[in-house]
Amino acid sequence: xxxxxxxxxxxxxxxxxxxxxxxxxxxxxxxxxxxxxxxxxxxxxxxxxxxxxxxxxxxxxxxxxxxxxxxxxxxxxxxxxxxxxxxxxxxxxxxxxxxxxxxxxxxxxxxxxxxxxxxxxxxxxxxxxxxxxxxxxxxxxxxxxxxxxxxxxxxxxxxxxxxxxxxxxxxxxxxxxxxxxxxxxxx
Length: 187
What we know:
Layout: H1 2-9, E1 15-17, H2 18-23, H3 28-37, E2 40-44, E3 47-50, H4 59-66, E4 74-75, H5 77-84, E5 94-98, E6 112-116, E7 124-127, E8 130-133, H6 135-144, H7 149-161, H8 167-180
Parallel strand pairs: 5-6
Antiparallel strand pairs: 1-3, 2-3, 4-5, 7-8
Helix pairs in contact: 5-6, 6-7, 6-8, 7-8
């Protein structure tokens, strides 16, 4: 049983959800039992982490994408910008995108901001295995959210230098910043 859980959790930084466990024929009650025994740690409703799995600085980001019950969340806005490490942004909360049809039926923790957006496949990437909006989509979302121009220009330049943005997408992002007049306060 424990090996089966490790296999499930391996690509998700040691996390397993009741949904992924059920797909592997492991009932939710069994996860509760394993948490009571200390094999699993309950992170949030329906999200558990294997205690003996090595921790990572990315754990909190992966846990955030698993928090929305019933769907996989996607990191977005300034959280995704931080994850790409292309500018000096320091988000205070974790931005998570879920489909517009998804209804959050529990209190959202203070550290999370939920955005209801219908992303297309081309708008989603995986950064070290964590789902996030693509850099181009992230910059557009941050521009609309009035993130400082300096940070967005820094993200475009570094994104191009790191091969995360094509010239075409960088030019489009720059034009969007100019058109929407993103905040000039630096974030």
